[in-house]
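Aim 2 progress. For DUF8039 domain-containing protein, the working sequence is reproduced below.
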Amino acid sequence: MKCKLIDLVVGTHIVAEGEIAIDDPLHVVEGAPIGVGSYMVWVQTTIDHNALIWRTQANMRTIEQALGELIPWPKQHVFIPNT
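Predicted structure tokens for this construct:
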């Protein structure tokens, strides 16, 4: 499902576009489950390249570094447009 990722600090602008890949709260990322309030999102386009990702990983801290990767993102910061 296509989606837009909303910034984590202010919560008012889109930092990336992608696709929801996993909606399983037990899915583990770097040793910890993503949790009930999260999706795993495949980042397809970055808009605010320097925006920090929600749960930094060993090789990723910004949304630009997450381009083409699956990352966890809180559901309240995911906008799913009507298609």
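Residues 30 and 78 are 21 Å apart (CA to CA). This observation will guide construct design in the next reporting period.
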